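Q: Structure for this?
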Amino acid sequence: MKLARDTWLVYQRQLLLMARSPAWLAVGLLQPLCYLLLFAPLLTSALAASGAHSTADAYRIYVPGLLSALAVMGGLFTGFTLLGELHAGVIERSRVTPVSRVALLLGRALRETTALLVQSLLIAVLAIPFGLTVGLTDLLLAMALLALMALMASSVSYGLALLVPTDAALGPVVNTIAQPLALLSGTLLPIALAPAWLRTAASWNPCYWGVEGMRALFAGHLDAPEVWRGLLLTGLMTALAVAWAARLFARRIR
Amino acid sequence: MIVTKGLRKSFRPRRGAATVDAVRGIDLNVAEGEIYGLLGPNGAGKTTTLRMLATLLAPDGGEATVAGADLRAEPGEVRRRIGYVAQGGGTTDQATAREELVLQARMYGIRKAEALQRAEQGLAAFDLAEFGDRPCKTYSGGQRRRLDLALGVVHRPRVLFLDEPTVGLDPRSRAQVWSEVRRLREQGMTVLITTHYLDEADALCDRIGIVDHGGIVTEGTPEQLKQEISGDAVTIGLPGAEDTAHAERALAELPCVQRLEALPGQDGLRLHVDSAATAIPQLLRALAAAGLEPDHVQLQRPSLDDVFLALTGRPLVHA
Ligand SMILES: Nc1ncnc2c1ncn2[C@@H]1O[C@H](COP(=O)(O)OP(=O)(O)OP(=O)(O)O)[C@@H](O)[C@H]1O
Ligand SMILES: [Mg+2]
């Protein structure tokens, strides 16, 4: 009860601050739109090997990957905002109050999740006139999957920011994690194109199953095993990531 | 209100590096409604002490009771009863003072309607109303500091910790912060304040603990400290060299005189006495008995600067 109330409190404040930086919002939306409008047409031929015969097909493969990449990358880099708050003393000020420590993490991670969801929904809807077809149930489930991925990535990022609390040190750490994570989950190109050993490696990637689930949903295969497997495994990984970061928050930020 | 015994904390800056004993056994006993000042140079351990008492840092040893709650056993209870204003503040640039006050109150579990009311009162009480709906990044140093204070007391704590509340402020803003602190004390709040300004400790605090190298070197009221260390200095101007020599013989034997020397460059004496209040009448009587009449008698109170110098062998400002 207190956790829910406090999380809501932190979350509200975070949303308010986000709404106050419109420049940031604009960049957040323009960037993926550029990918969508400029890069995707190139892919029609590139993705022919995975069965893309038209722009619509290419979008079906490309959009879920793009959205997953956004969720994971956006989430992973959100730790830098926590560093800013740590340096400004905002976190310390919260720590002297009896506010729930886990709420300080959850409110922030959920803000990031919300931002990424809004961004993703907008991209998905904008892609429809360009030939993307997706059912409502599929889209909603895909958004749920994305939310889980964003929550997982931002929790991990906040945890890392607490462990390595300087800009100079956090950058390389996040990059080192983000690069292989993105490549090996097949966000940009389906991992099915890869040789067998790479595919084995990819199956150990915590994001891989989510991306597979996303692709299945955008292909309209609601009952494909990738969907429930993606939701289940990503949900599990998210729970682990949140638990880890929350523990760290509670311990470092007692 | 604040009782500590042997509070200790060391840091290990890097793995393998030597430990820094930031605080090595601090004993405090601050009464309700008192303004207690920790006065000491950079790195003395003032912030570390405050952070421990505010539950931000786990002590390595010792015990403490803050506002009736045990620091180790019930840190949550301590948090509910105290307010803490950090050395660097802790406001969000994009938020307004009103929003910050509401959030702060709500983090203490206060309901929304009540929190809005408290914010309004806080803005009025700390003279923030005029710009209370402007983002904090537009505030001057003094305005920001007053907001920090308002945030520290929005939940009406019994004990308030202030870490260097006036550092970097102009004299007017400083005076304003001092009067806010005095007002809080009048409302019955106990205030533990750190500072490395002598005048601040002198003007604001009921009692002062002088901190150096992680320990309290001495403590007492500003008056006691000044007296304990160097007593008072009195200068007596006399009409001529002959009178001066005469007076020197007349006064040297008085029990209240610790030391005396001729004034450099003019006729007269400089005397060190335990307490000028009781010594001056005796001095005048002794002079009259010797048939001497001084031109002037001047009292020079020692400053806390002298106290610090006497205790540590270093002046505070350059320490
Ligand atoms: N987190 C930390 N890690 C390592 N050393 C620390 C840490 N915090 C404080 N110290 C060290 O402990 C000592 C006491 O620091 P503290 O901040 O308590 O001093 P202070 O009296 O508040 O000084 P100032 O007047 O400069 O604020 C210093 O030597 C400082 O370098
Ligand atoms: Mg300090």
